[in-house]
Amino acid sequence: MSQNPVNRGYFAIGVEGISKPMNLGAVLRTAHAFHASFCFTIGARFNVRDVLASDTSVAFDSMPVQIYEDLAAFQQPLGARIVGIEITEDAIDLPSFTHPPAAIYVLGAEKDSLSPEMQARCDFIIKIPTRFCVNVSVAGAIVMYDRMISLGRFAERPVRVGGPAKPLAAHKRGLPVWKQKQLKKQHNSD
């Protein structure tokens, strides 16, 4: 059974300097599965269009794939925060990171790190607390999964081993919080 959690905001994921077509294909398929708004490459070292033609999930039919020749051409959407995924001394451990509602995640290439110029453009740099670095597509999948479980709407984990004891309560719809506060303030002043 496929579950589509209710997430606010949007996210995109991309790779700077990717050199292996199969890794890009895996990033695209995984991003498609996690409902990414778009994917991108910056300075890819191969013809990205060849990868798109062989993508078995046909991700490019469901989300835009943007190809930037270099970092100077890269454009982030207004209001989006850039989150670099890189092992650095001051990077935030992923389990301790709160994802921004509008996020652009960027990974470094397989044989290299995020460029210093890209790191300087990042609002945050996060790392996956593993013994050593993992494959670029695996790192992307871990970050997208963490975003989904931390921002999605799921039943709380039970104290005991196993699944949730009771199903998630139905979402309550109503006025926006700011409007509720305004009406409450108005009611209290009457």
From TrEMBL:
Keyword Methyltransferase: yes
One GO molecular-function entry: methyltransferase activity
CDD domains membership: SpoU-like
Domain tRNA/rRNA methyltransferase SpoU type: 12-145
Biological process annotations from GO: methylation
Keyword terms of this UniProt record: Methyltransferase, Transferase
PANTHER family, sorted: OBP33PEP LIKE PROTEIN, RRNA METHYLTRANSFERASE 3
Protein name: RNA methyltransferase
Protein species of origin: Dongia rigui
